[in-house]
Fold this protein.
Amino acid sequence: DAMVIQNPRYQVTQFGKPVTLSCSQTLNHNVMYWYQQKSSQAPKLLFHYYDKDFNNEADTPDNFQSRRPNTSFCFLDIRSPGLGDAAMYLCATSRDRSSNEKLFFGSGTQLSVL
Amino acid sequence: AQSVTQPDIHITVSEGASLELRCNYSYGATPYLFWYVQSPGQGLQLLLKYFSGDTLVQGIKGFEAEFKRSQSSFNLRKPSVHWSDAAEYFCAVRTNFGNEKLTFGTGTRLTIIP
């Protein structure tokens, strides 16, 4: 039973064309994270929501935005995708932000930019 | 800021052989340490974690890891690997101050040969 669900599994977009990736969770967790993982690199945190509180990482480009309309859903919006934004995007959740909390990951969305 | 190093990009092991994946961290105090596994086409799954206490921790799927403060290491081991263990393995660190992000290493890809 999937607990963190990401759609679509593969997404192809054109250079400069806005794209939205979605994530939903059935765990009722307070925190939702978005990670970017480029080929052969470590997952890199873009931002997270703690409930409705949005927390952006300092080095996340303005091109990346996020929305969390309710506890279950979180969206990643890329306003003008560039070739360098092609990557796997991972959504994760945790019950709270304590350092000992386990993160639950979705299967990811592989984004290609043409 | 904390950092994680996984010196081995790719390791090949025969099925049934023992395995050790290396992880070194950089942090002034004892951080919280994690090992995650990512199977092809899947999200990351937590194998085990270390916070305090016994320096040898047991995880799922027969994995264990040993925290060695003197070496700033948290190496992952398994006595006998199975073909299904082929995956990407990520070591991760988080400070124990709370509200700190999880920082991943660049991963080690494990290939199992018959």
